[in-house]
Every structure is written in C-alpha cells, then in structure tokens.
C-alpha cells in the first residue's frame, strides 16, 4: 500500500483507512461472485472510501491517493473526495447496498 505524498514513517497511520475501505466494500457488496470489471469497480470504491476518510481527517493538501493498483488524482479542493465517493456510489449502485447511516472512522 502506498499513499502518494505521505512519508513512509507516516504510512502506518493511514494504512488502516485502506483496510477499512476494503472491509466496508466487502460488507456491503451485494454481488456474490463479481466478475473482473465488477472487482475493479469495487477496488475503486474501496480506494475512494479511504480517500474520503483521509480527506475528512484533514490530511492537508492531498492531491493523489494510491492504494494497490488504484490511483486517484484530483485537485486539492475541499470536498473532492466526498464528491468522488458520491459519484462512484451512484455509478455502481447495483454492486453495493449502502443505504442508511455510514460511520466512517475515528483517527487520532
């Protein structure tokens, strides 16, 4: 796992976010056996989830986020991760059930 722009000694603090993203997607996926394209979409959603939480944690001027093979790059505008998250949830609504309240994460 690599968080672009984050020093190696700081990565352990954020690695859990990527793991949370994967766990979240796994818990909410409604497709029993996703095909290759669906798997890639789910990986993108997991990375966007982690990116969203990273932004919520006020990680600074984050402009890119890489988790495994997924790389997300955007401007450093506040709320860009939330917009990306909402967009992907809408686009791939058939893959996941995310109705209701989503508690993100507490990071100290």
Sequence-ordered SSE layout with sheet pairings:
Blueprint: H1 8-28, H2 36-56, E1 64-67, E2 70-73, H3 80-91
Antiparallel strand pairs: 1-2
Helix pairs in contact: 1-2, 2-3
Q: Main traits of this protein?
A:
108 residues; mainly alpha; two-stranded antiparallel sheet; 3 helices; 2 strands; globular
Mind explaining what this structure looks like?
By secondary structure, the chain is mainly alpha-helical. The chain has one domain (8-91). It has helices spanning 8-28, 36-56, 80-91; strands spanning 64-67, 70-73. It has a two-stranded antiparallel ribbon with strand order 1-2. Strand 1 (64-67) and strand 2 form a beta hairpin. Helix 1 (8-28) packs across helix 2 (36-56) and helix 2 (36-56) runs antiparallel to helix 3. The longest helix is centred in the first third of the chain and has 21 residues, at 8-28. The protein is globular and about 35 Å long. The chain starts with 7 loop residues before the first helix and ends in a 17-residue tail after the last helix. 27% of the residues are buried.
Strand content: 5-15%
Q: What's the story with the biggest beta sheet?
A: 2 strands, antiparallel
Overall number of strands: 2
Shape: globular
């Amino acid at each position: 796992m690599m968080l672009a722009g984050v020093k190696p000694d700081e990565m352990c603090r954020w690695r859990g976010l990527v793991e949370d993203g994967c766990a979240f997607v796994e818990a909410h996926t409604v497709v029993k056996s996703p095909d290759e394209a669906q798997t890639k979409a789910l990986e993108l959603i997991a990375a966007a989830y982690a990116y969203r939480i990273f932004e919520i944690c006020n990680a600074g001027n984050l402009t890119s986020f890489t988790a495994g093979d997924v790389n997300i790059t955007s401007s450093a505008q506040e709320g860009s991760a939330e917009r990306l998250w909402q967009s992907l949830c809408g686009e791939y609504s058939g893959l996941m059930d995310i109705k209701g309240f989503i508690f993100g994460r507490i990071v100290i």
